[in-house]
Amino acid sequence: MMLRHFAACLLVLAVSSASSQEKAKLVYLDAKAPIPARVRDLLGRMTIDEKVAQLQSGLKYPAMFAPQGSLFGKNGINEDAARKTLGSGLGTYVFLDEFIGMNAGGPREGAENRNLLQAWVMKNTRLGIPILFHGEALHGAAIKGATSFPQAVGLGSTWDPELLTQMFSVVAKEVRAAGNALVLAPVLDLSRDPRYGRVEEMYSEDPYLVGQMGVAAVRGLQGESSDLDQNHVFATAKHFVHG
């Protein structure tokens, strides 16, 4: 009986070891492999459901508005809700409660929740594709305690792209410190019609000035390197189309 038990244990260890070695050989998990090769390998392994999941975004509502089945329970991740929402992975996630200042725990709570979500996805999804966390940063990181700079219409009035790069470098550090790697900024719309309700979010009505300020903002957010470092975030140039 002991011999059979020992043999079974050896078999389990062998299978586990083989599985770990096989996973280690996957191209998309090899940080040293060329990015195009990693992308091709990953896409080739993904199901339709997993690809669709990467096109979707989730959000955390303030506690008072949170629907039943919230991803976050009293003791961490709500497993049932996580399996339904994150079972095939998820592209991006935003903490709406943090954006409107209704997360009581502030940046620490946000960072802890991000870690919980990321750990669950990496451990419980088939391919372990991490979530990309995003936030708002129109004129500062939309996080409790972060620096609030002048609104975009005021920034455009400076006619000073270098100053904007310096400003958004600070914004990037504060955003990254809270756990986000992507921001929905800068806004590069042209303020041609004052009836539009977001004119204050625009640098100018002049395309050249908006272009120069936009480049400066992206440079501050993303840095000069083609690889994102720990002090910068991905920028999203928007919106271009509005009613």
Question: Could you characterize the architecture of this molecule?
Answer:
The chain is an alpha/beta fold and 243 residues long. It has a domain of 45 residues. It has nine helices and six strands, in the order H-H-H-E-E-E-H-E-H-H-E-H-H-E-H. The chain has a four-stranded parallel beta sheet with strand order 1-4-5-6. Strands 2-3 form a two-stranded antiparallel ribbon. A hairpin with a 2-residue loop joins strand 2 and strand 3.
Topology:
Elements: H1 2-24, H2 35-45, H3 48-53, E1 57-60, E2 72-73, E3 76-77, H4 79-86, E4 92-95, H5 96-99, H6 106-124, E5 132-135, H7 152-156, H8 161-177, E6 182-183, H9 207-222
Parallel strand pairs: 1-4, 4-5, 5-6
Antiparallel strand pairs: 2-3
Helix pairs in contact: 8-9
Topology order in helix (H) and strand (E) letters:
HHHEEEHEHHEHHEH
The order of strands across the largest sheet is 1-4-5-6
Total helices: the number is: 9
Helix percentage range: 40-55%
| Stretches with pLDDT under 50, minimum 5 residues | none
List keywords for this structure.
243 residues; alpha/beta; 4-stranded parallel sheet; two-stranded antiparallel sheet
